[in-house]
Amino acid sequence: MSNNRRDFLKSVGTIGLGAAIISPISAIANTNQAEEINLDTTIDGSKRQTISILQTTDVHCQIHPHDELFWENGKAVFRKTGGYAYMATLLKQLKKKNPNTYIIDTGDMFQGSELSVETTGEAFVPILNALDYDLYLPGN
Questions:
Q1: Coiled-coil intervals in this record (predicted)?
Q2: Domain that holds residue 127
Q3: For the chain, what is the total number of helices (H) and then of strands (E)?
Q4: What share of the chain is helix, strand, coil (3-state, %, to 5)?
Q5: Rounded CA gap, 120 and 88, in Å?
Q6: pLDDT digits over 23-68, tens only?
Q7: Max alpha carbon distance in the chain (Å)?
Q8: Residue 11 resides in a domain
Q9: Residue 104 lies in a domain
Q10: Which of 6, 35, 80, 102 would give a disulfide with 65, using CB separation of 3.0 to 4.6 Å?
Q11: Cα angle vertex 129, ends 124, 135, to 5°?
C-alpha cells in the first residue's frame, strides 16, 4: 500500500462520498412511506430559513468604478466594474431579499489606492461601516 498524500486523499474522498450516498439512502429506507415530507418545515414543524453568505475580495480601496480586465471568448475585454456605491446598492438589494444574509470581505480591502495610503486606510472606515459588513478578514 502506498503511503503518499495523493493516495490518502483519494481514500478519504472515497470514504466520504460513500458515506454521503449511503447515509441518505438508509434514512429513506427507514421512513414510513405514508408520511408526507414537507420541505418548507423542519422536523419540529418550524419554518426553514435560508442563510446567504456574500463575499467581496480584492476591492483595493476603489471608490469609483474602474476598468477591469475580463477574459471573454478567449479575448481580453475591459469593462467598468467595482466602486463602493455600486457594491453598496447590490449588497443592500441582496440583503433585502434575505434578511439572513451575512457579508464578509476576504482580504486586500485596505491596500491599493492613493487615498488609502495617505490616510493609512482611515478614510475608508465610514464607507466600510456604511456597507454593514459582518466580518473582515485581513490579507489575501
A1: none
A2: 52-136
A3: 4, 5
A4: 40, 20, 40
A5: 22
A6: 454 444 444 444 555 566 677 778 888 999 999 888 888 888 889 8
A7: 69
A8: no
A9: yes
A10: 80
A11: 105
Question: What does the angle CA 88 – CA 124 – CA 110 come to, to the nearest 5 degrees?
Answer: 100
End-to-end CA distance of the chain: 38
What gap in Å lies between CA 59 and CA 105, rounded to an integer?
A: 9
Assessment of whether the complete model's pTM goes beyond 0.70: no
Torsion angle of alpha carbons 126, 131, 137, 140, nearest 10°?
-100
Task: Return the amino acid letter for 42.
Answer: T
Q: Count how many domains the chain has.
A: 1
CA 17 to chain centre: 24
Q: What is the dihedral of CA 116, 119, 121, 123, to 10 degrees?
A: -90
DSSP letters for 67-108 = EEEEEETTEEEEEEE--HHHHHHHHHHHHHH-SSEEEEE-S-
Domain membership of residue 91 (yes or no) is: yes
- The torsion region of residue 107 among left (phi > 0), alpha (psi -120 to 50) and beta comes to left
Q: What is the CATH number of the domain that holds 73?
A: 3.30.420
